[in-house]
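[job 4417] fold queue: 2 targets
>>> target A
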Amino acid sequence: MNLRKWIGRDVELIYADADGRLTRRLVRLARVEADYVYGFDREKRLPRTFRLDGILAAQPADGPGGRAGRRLG
Protein backbone atom coordinates (compact mmCIF):
# COMPACT_ATOMS: atom_id res chain seq x y z
CA MET A 1 0.00 0.00 0.00
CA ASN A 2 1.57 3.29 -1.10
CA LEU A 3 0.63 5.80 1.61
CA ARG A 4 3.55 8.13 0.87
CA LYS A 5 1.50 9.89 -1.80
CA TRP A 6 -0.83 11.18 0.95
CA ILE A 7 1.79 12.59 3.33
CA GLY A 8 0.56 15.92 4.66
CA ARG A 9 -3.09 15.04 4.00
CA ASP A 10 -5.91 13.68 6.12
CA VAL A 11 -6.48 10.00 5.42
CA GLU A 12 -9.14 7.60 6.67
CA LEU A 13 -7.67 4.32 7.85
CA ILE A 14 -9.26 1.02 8.76
CA TYR A 15 -6.77 -0.35 11.27
CA ALA A 16 -6.42 -3.68 13.06
CA ASP A 17 -4.45 -3.35 16.29
CA ALA A 18 -2.26 -6.07 17.83
CA ASP A 19 -5.33 -7.63 19.51
CA GLY A 20 -7.28 -7.72 16.23
CA ARG A 21 -9.65 -4.87 17.15
CA LEU A 22 -10.75 -2.88 14.12
CA THR A 23 -10.98 0.89 14.26
CA ARG A 24 -11.59 3.67 11.78
CA ARG A 25 -9.11 6.54 12.16
CA LEU A 26 -8.82 9.98 10.65
CA VAL A 27 -5.10 10.68 10.52
CA ARG A 28 -2.95 13.51 9.14
CA LEU A 29 -0.05 11.52 7.67
CA ALA A 30 3.39 12.77 8.66
CA ARG A 31 5.76 10.08 7.34
CA VAL A 32 6.07 6.47 6.28
CA GLU A 33 9.19 4.52 7.23
CA ALA A 34 9.79 0.81 6.64
CA ASP A 35 6.97 -0.94 8.54
CA TYR A 36 5.45 2.09 10.29
CA VAL A 37 3.22 5.04 9.49
CA TYR A 38 3.43 8.16 11.65
CA GLY A 39 0.70 10.73 11.88
CA PHE A 40 -1.63 12.82 13.98
CA ASP A 41 -4.92 11.20 15.00
CA ARG A 42 -7.53 13.92 14.48
CA GLU A 43 -10.11 12.41 16.86
CA LYS A 44 -7.72 11.69 19.75
CA ARG A 45 -5.71 14.84 19.02
CA LEU A 46 -2.45 12.98 19.59
CA PRO A 47 0.46 11.77 17.49
CA ARG A 48 0.18 8.07 16.66
CA THR A 49 2.27 5.30 15.13
CA PHE A 50 0.61 2.57 13.07
CA ARG A 51 2.08 -0.70 11.88
CA LEU A 52 1.81 -0.79 8.10
CA ASP A 53 0.60 -4.39 8.15
CA GLY A 54 -2.28 -3.35 10.44
CA ILE A 55 -3.68 -0.88 7.91
CA LEU A 56 -6.40 -2.78 6.06
CA ALA A 57 -7.71 0.11 3.96
CA ALA A 58 -6.90 3.76 3.35
CA GLN A 59 -8.39 6.62 1.37
CA PRO A 60 -7.93 10.38 1.35
CA ALA A 61 -10.47 11.98 3.67
CA ASP A 62 -11.27 14.72 1.17
CA GLY A 63 -12.17 12.23 -1.57
CA PRO A 64 -15.58 10.74 -2.36
CA GLY A 65 -17.13 9.47 0.86
CA GLY A 66 -14.37 11.09 2.93
CA ARG A 67 -14.96 12.59 6.35
CA ALA A 68 -12.90 15.77 6.07
CA GLY A 69 -14.69 18.58 7.81
CA ARG A 70 -17.18 16.26 9.51
CA ARG A 71 -17.15 15.35 13.18
CA LEU A 72 -16.12 11.77 13.89
CA GLY A 73 -18.35 9.64 16.00
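>>> target B
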Amino acid sequence: MTHPDSSAEALPCSARGCRAAARWALRWNNPRLHAPERRKTWLACDEHRSSLGDFLGARAFLREVTPLAGSPTLEEWTRTTKSRPREREE
Protein backbone atom coordinates (compact mmCIF):
# COMPACT_ATOMS: atom_id res chain seq x y z
CA MET A 1 0.00 0.00 0.00
CA THR A 2 1.14 3.50 -0.76
CA HIS A 3 1.47 5.84 2.19
CA PRO A 4 -1.11 8.66 1.75
CA ASP A 5 1.48 11.39 2.41
CA SER A 6 3.29 10.39 -0.77
CA SER A 7 0.18 10.02 -2.92
CA ALA A 8 -0.98 12.83 -5.18
CA GLU A 9 -4.52 11.70 -4.37
CA ALA A 10 -4.18 11.98 -0.57
CA LEU A 11 -7.13 13.80 0.92
CA PRO A 12 -6.14 16.90 2.90
CA CYS A 13 -7.10 17.71 6.46
CA SER A 14 -10.12 20.02 6.80
CA ALA A 15 -8.38 22.31 9.32
CA ARG A 16 -7.80 25.78 7.91
CA GLY A 17 -4.40 26.05 6.27
CA CYS A 18 -3.43 22.42 6.92
CA ARG A 19 -2.10 20.45 3.97
CA ALA A 20 -1.33 17.24 5.83
CA ALA A 21 -2.92 14.00 4.66
CA ALA A 22 -6.14 13.21 6.47
CA ARG A 23 -6.23 10.03 8.55
CA TRP A 24 -9.56 10.45 10.35
CA ALA A 25 -13.17 11.04 9.31
CA LEU A 26 -15.18 13.12 11.78
CA ARG A 27 -18.81 12.39 10.95
CA TRP A 28 -21.31 14.96 12.16
CA ASN A 29 -24.65 16.61 11.61
CA ASN A 30 -26.43 19.72 12.76
CA PRO A 31 -29.77 18.48 14.16
CA ARG A 32 -31.37 21.86 13.44
CA LEU A 33 -30.58 21.51 9.73
CA HIS A 34 -30.11 17.81 8.96
CA ALA A 35 -32.21 14.68 9.31
CA PRO A 36 -30.93 12.46 12.17
CA GLU A 37 -29.45 9.85 9.80
CA ARG A 38 -27.60 12.40 7.63
CA ARG A 39 -23.84 12.65 8.14
CA LYS A 40 -21.43 15.27 6.91
CA THR A 41 -17.71 14.58 7.09
CA TRP A 42 -14.69 16.61 8.03
CA LEU A 43 -11.30 15.04 7.45
CA ALA A 44 -8.53 15.38 10.01
CA CYS A 45 -4.83 14.68 10.26
CA ASP A 46 -3.50 13.30 13.54
CA GLU A 47 -2.58 16.81 14.74
CA HIS A 48 -6.05 18.32 14.16
CA ARG A 49 -8.26 15.37 15.10
CA SER A 50 -8.76 16.73 18.63
CA SER A 51 -9.31 20.39 17.79
CA LEU A 52 -11.81 19.68 15.01
CA GLY A 53 -13.55 17.10 17.20
CA ASP A 54 -13.69 19.55 20.12
CA PHE A 55 -15.22 22.22 17.86
CA LEU A 56 -17.96 19.86 16.66
CA GLY A 57 -18.43 18.32 20.11
CA ALA A 58 -18.94 21.70 21.79
CA ARG A 59 -21.89 22.24 19.46
CA ALA A 60 -23.23 18.68 19.96
CA PHE A 61 -22.70 18.00 16.24
CA LEU A 62 -20.07 15.23 16.44
CA ARG A 63 -21.53 11.76 15.90
CA GLU A 64 -18.50 9.52 15.34
CA VAL A 65 -14.81 9.49 14.54
CA THR A 66 -13.44 6.71 12.33
CA PRO A 67 -10.15 6.08 10.57
CA LEU A 68 -10.15 7.27 6.97
CA ALA A 69 -10.29 4.48 4.39
CA GLY A 70 -6.92 3.86 2.77
CA SER A 71 -4.87 5.42 5.55
CA PRO A 72 -2.26 3.64 7.69
CA THR A 73 -4.45 4.66 10.62
CA LEU A 74 -7.27 2.47 9.30
CA GLU A 75 -4.97 -0.53 8.93
CA GLU A 76 -3.71 -0.12 12.52
CA TRP A 77 -7.20 0.55 13.90
CA THR A 78 -8.63 -2.50 12.12
CA ARG A 79 -5.84 -4.72 13.41
CA THR A 80 -6.31 -3.58 17.02
CA THR A 81 -10.11 -3.46 17.11
CA LYS A 82 -11.19 -6.63 15.31
CA SER A 83 -13.01 -7.90 18.38
CA ARG A 84 -14.08 -4.52 19.78
CA PRO A 85 -17.05 -2.40 18.64
CA ARG A 86 -16.50 0.56 16.34
CA GLU A 87 -14.91 3.63 17.94
CA ARG A 88 -17.48 6.31 18.69
CA GLU A 89 -17.18 9.80 20.08
CA GLU A 90 -20.29 11.76 20.90
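[job 4417] complete. Note on B: Strands lie at 24-28, 40-44, 62-67.
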